[in-house]
Design goal:
Layout: E1 6-10, H1 14-20, H2 25-45, E2 50-57, H3 65-88, E3 91-96, H4 104-117, E4 123-131, H5 133-146, H6 156-160, E5 173-176, E6 195-198, H7 208-220
Parallel strand pairs: 1-2, 1-5, 2-4, 3-4, 5-6
């Protein structure tokens, strides 16, 4: 059995789940938020050291002001209230994505959560907030150039050293829920050799058995990395 070092999840279907259950769309987001904590524990139990969840894309700003505000409040809660539980479990919490458009209050919470958990070693939780894969690549190139790298010196290694997940392994497996079969800009640079698994369940219904099924499917595949 191959060990999964890094699992990425596109948590899709919160609003559809709420609609199916006759609930307000925001309730779907609340249930999806609760699911992250559960899945994090399942990953730890299976030796998965890095979990990256797609929480809010750069395109999600186009949603209603009410929905965006509610999601930002959930992120703030995660980084100020739930952070204590993550810290007790030895989880390093990092937020990847652009700080642009985020409130000063949320940015302060991000900085405090990252500082509090920076020395934890049991696992890493990356929250992708205001994240876009192409934006990450552009930002990495700008960082490299600002650090004095000449255009002719740009390389895959240099870009990998300047992306938001620098120093972490690339994702072995990416799961997307709700039946959609695309990455939508998630970990664009890092996912070139990731195995993809699409689950038809909406995110709040994702169960421990679904994770095991995805892991079993991953272990059944022959990963050639461009070889024969």
């Amino acid at each position: 059995m191959t060990v999964i070092n890094h699992l990425g999840i596109i948590m899709d279907g919160n609003r559809r789940w709420a609609k199916e259950h006759g609930l307000p769309g925001l309730e779907g987001h609340r249930c999806g938020y609760d699911k992250i904590v559960e899945v994090g524990d399942w990953c730890l139990a299976r030796g998965i050291k890095v979990l990256t969840v797609y929480a809010f894309s750069t395109e999600n700003w186009n949603r209603t002001q009410e929905e965006v505000g509610y999601l930002m409040d959930l992120f703030y809660k995660a980084l100020t209230v739930e952070i204590e539980a993550f810290h007790r479990k030895g989880i390093k919490v990092r937020v990847i994505g652009s700080r642009e458009k985020l409130s000063e209050k949320l940015i302060a919470a991000i900085d405090a959560a990252e500082a509090k958990t920076k020395d934890n070693r049991e696992g890493t939780l990356n929250l992708a907030i205001n994240y876009g894969g192409r934006l990450e690549i552009v930002t990495a190139m700008k960082r490299a150039l600002a650090a004095g790298v000449k255009p002719e010196e740009l390389s895959e290694e240099v870009i990998s050293q300047n992306i938001w997940t620098a120093g972490q392994p690339d994702p072995d497996l990416i799961i997307r829920t709700s039946g959609e079969q695309r990455l939508s800009g998630f970990l664009t640079w890092q996912s070139v050799y990731s195995e993809l698994y699409f689950c038809r369940k909406n995110w709040p219904d994702f169960a421990e058995a679904d994770l095991d099924e995805a892991v079993a499917e991953f272990n059944s595949r022959n990963r050639r990395f461009g070889g024969n």
